[in-house]
Amino acid sequence: MLLANLIFELRPLLDDPDANLRQIVARLRAHDDFAEYEVARHYVASKVEGVVRSWLASPDPRVRTEAIVAVRQIFSRPAAAKLLRHLVKDATLSVRRAARRAVGELGLDDVALRDTSLALPRYPRARGGWNPTGWQFGTGASRGRPRLEPAGTRAGLPTLPDLAALTGWLGLDAAGLRRLMRPGTHEGAPYVNFEIPKARGGRRTISAPRAPLRAVQRQILAQILSKVPTHDAAHGFVPGRSTVTNAAPHVGALLLLKTDIREFFPTIHYWRVRGLFFTLGYGEAVSGALAGLCTQRAVINPDATAPQRRVVWPGLMPQGAPTSPAISNLVCRRLDARLLGLATKLGARYTRYADDLSFSFHDSARVEALDVGRAYWWIDQILQQEGFAEHPGKRQILRPHRRQQVTGLVVNDHLTVPRDARRRFRAILHNCRQRGVAAEANGRDDFPDYLRGFAAYVDMVQPDLGARWVAEVDALLADQAL
């Protein structure tokens, strides 16, 4: 077949790539021995990349598997490597297998952090070398299914030898436990979904547990999770730590490197949570039940009937559950230890606030010797091995001549709230004095709480300025109450 004929067949399909992706892949597969196939593939790749990425992010594992087939058929090896590397550790076994099969068929030879659970091979491309086998680190046969029962629970944690003990501790019966682990967000399900806007555009889905499950999760948080220490580098969701303690180590940095973890909470799935509870000393059955109570299973086509209506397995950690922040910090203990070790080797300071990673350099000689690209490569590879994905678009390289911010605070010379935020609040206080709080509130019922909250926030960061603003807000609100 001539290249022109193949393009002629593909062109109408590319008018709606989302609906026609399967046919596009089938046409390319039928002609992959064609001499000018690479030209056709390049032509298609530029038009379907967005669709393929959206399919790879689908909650339906079947859709993700189909997207992997499309990646294998459409994209060049370098582009395919970027898309497949995180899927080799997908929560669903069928997706993992499809991704690993595609990596093997494409013959990817990317340089990757080696899998230290395998012996260093004699030949560079063999398993265990500095090659894509390192992407699979931590996914051995026993992952998620421990072969040995733990010796015993840690001191200070409730002893729960079996499911009967767990249900008694939670004040439930077996049927009540099963009800709290039902999938979906429909009426009667343990979760309800709603959306909130993201700070930089887009929408974020929050899965909030309903009252019965929320009470159980708070018990698990208070009596198990909160009693396990987090890594010292973790500052988000930790009592006694805050955005201030997270930013303080980076004050006066000669170089600040920042990046984010992509889809932080949803990356933590049932098997990882189950493994966490197992490391705390609970058996397989109890660890599985606790993980089921702390994760959520989605339902595909919830309004349809079987076989269209399907439950996704395994469940993912929801944004909105009271247990999720603590679990994320505990799951990240080894990640934090490895990134701190990297930072120490590079001569940097490291902190993490949820999905926000910060590395600061304070020694001029270490800054001059630093290869920034190589430092980011190590960060990215460690994240990959620990089951997370870096968000390359969030990378920031900040030097003293620019405003250096860590978790919303300026750290160039000393900790301060950004100048534009201070000016805006100062103007609001001025208007409150001139026009009154009620007029400035413009109908907002939470406006007094906003005034108190921002003044208290500034007081935490800049005590001298904050104390004046706290006193001024108190006076303004007292006058309004008269």
From TrEMBL:
Keywords: Antiviral defense, Magnesium, Metal-binding, Nucleotidyltransferase, RNA-directed DNA polymerase, Transferase. SUPFAM superfamilies: ARM repeat, DNA/RNA polymerases. It catalyses: DNA(n) + a 2'-deoxyribonucleoside 5'-triphosphate = DNA(n+1) + diphosphate. Residues 196-399 form the Reverse transcriptase domain. Its EC number is 2.7.7.49. It comes from the Bacteria. InterPro entries: ARM-like (IPR011989), ARM-type_fold (IPR016024), DNA/RNA_pol_sf (IPR043502), GrpII_Intron_Splice-Mob/Def (IPR051083), Reverse_transcriptase_msDNA (IPR000123), RT_dom (IPR000477). The keyword Transferase applies. Pfam families: HEAT_2, RVT_1. GO terms for molecular function: metal ion binding; RNA binding; RNA-directed DNA polymerase activity. It is an enzyme of class 2 (transferase). GO terms for biological process: defense response to virus. Belongs to the bacterial reverse transcriptase family. This is RNA-directed DNA polymerase.
